[in-house]
Amino acid sequence: MLDALLPFARNWLDAMQADVTRYVMFSVGVWLALWGVLAIPLAGRKIRDSRPPARQLLVEFAASIRSIMVFSTVGLVTFGLFRAGWLQGPYIAKSWGPVWFWTSLVLMILAHDAWFYWTHRLIHDRRLFRRFHRRHHRSNNPSPFTAYSFDLGEAFINGAFVPLWIILVPTQWPVIGLFMLHQIVRNTIGHSGYELFPARKDGRPLIPFLTTVTHHDLHHAQAGWNYGLYFTWWDKLMGTEHPDYLKRFAAVTARKDHKLEATSRPSPA
Fold first, then answer.
1. Domain map of the chain by residue range?
2. Burial track 59-93 (b if 16+ CB lie within 10 A, e otherwise)
3. Of 10, 198, 216, 243, which residue is 20 to 30 A from 263 by alpha carbon distance?
4. How far apart are CA 76 and CA 197, in angstroms?
């Protein structure tokens, strides 16, 4: 019995180590870079005047490690299937060559954005919010450490995407690694508190279909708007983009001396 469980324990620990390493590298790295080394040069790009208290950062870090434990546990499903020979997708994907390698990565990012938008809206329902999503929104003024600061239910929902994708879509393991790298980079930057995305001369985002830091910061300040993770199109299509988003983004990227504090506004029905 113990011999049968040892491979699962090793896989769980390996997955934990990889995900914790990614999380620590980018959360600590982004925090040190933006809140320390580049704080003065980027002062005009800081979205809010206030800084999250140290206690919030510690709680977020601890909650994020707990979320990674959930991710690693959920990931044992695909490990078990692969070990039993019932998961042939990675072999099939490899036989489809390099075009499918990059195509599957793009499709995975697009699918994850849709998964995140709709599950995110679901757990904002008042019947689910307190149990699934309150922990994340306790970070009203987010930091890079907020990236994985989830309640257990939300951690399970977010962790379920990768196993479901691997089961349903032939995907090589290195693609999964690149996907995980992409999502933690976007996640930590999106919670960084500094607007890092470039603007056009008219103040609009240079790449309008990408979510900016201001886009997600508004969600933390005024829940009920801006549910998207990587792209803005679901919010635009469903009418959930904050009505002042572009104005806020233009003001921040204009590098004005004053900072913009979030103000209350009613959520969409």
1. 2-194
2. bbbebbbbbbbbbbbbbbbbbebbeeeebebbeeb
3. 198
4. 36
